[in-house]
Amino acid sequence: MAQGTYSYDADQIAIDFGAIKIDSGYADGSFLEIEAEGMYFTYVLGTDGSVTRSKTKNKCAKITLKLMQSSYINDALSAVMILDNNAANGAGIAPFMLKDLNGTSLCAGAHCWIEGPPSLEWDRTAKSREWPLFCSDLNIFIGSNPKV
Length: 148
Description:
Order of helices and strands: EEEEEEHEEEE
Distance between the termini: 16 Å
CATH architecture: Beta Barrel
Radius of gyration: 19 Å
Number of domains: 1
Number of helices: 1
CATH topology: Elongation Factor Tu (Ef-tu), domain 3
Largest sheet: 8 strands, antiparallel
Helix content: under 10%
Structural class: mainly beta
Shape: globular
Strand content: 35-45%
Oligomer: single chain
């Protein structure tokens, strides 16, 4: 096993949704989650024990973007969500990209949209807003970070 010291920097995560560059205002802790909706392959087990593998062609993914309630990016996402909800023909569908600028991870898809508004909560202290996005064609490359 190779030992060493590796470098990761959350400030080096580039996130874009359409024309919106999401580069600040992240919630504390986890600020982005990407979860594939299903497996890329399924299988059927035959009576004789043989296995037939089938490609699902499912590239759907749920994306949760977590921002502080004070982030100006909430305004931009709200505008896209309202436009999409009030216009015809997918006005809110846009490309999505996450790129680790200090590593090799890359997630990108051409057809992403906001599923609906985040849950809202107000308190004595600032809270986060968790935006639910959905991408129908997300390509996911899970990379590494450099050894220093």
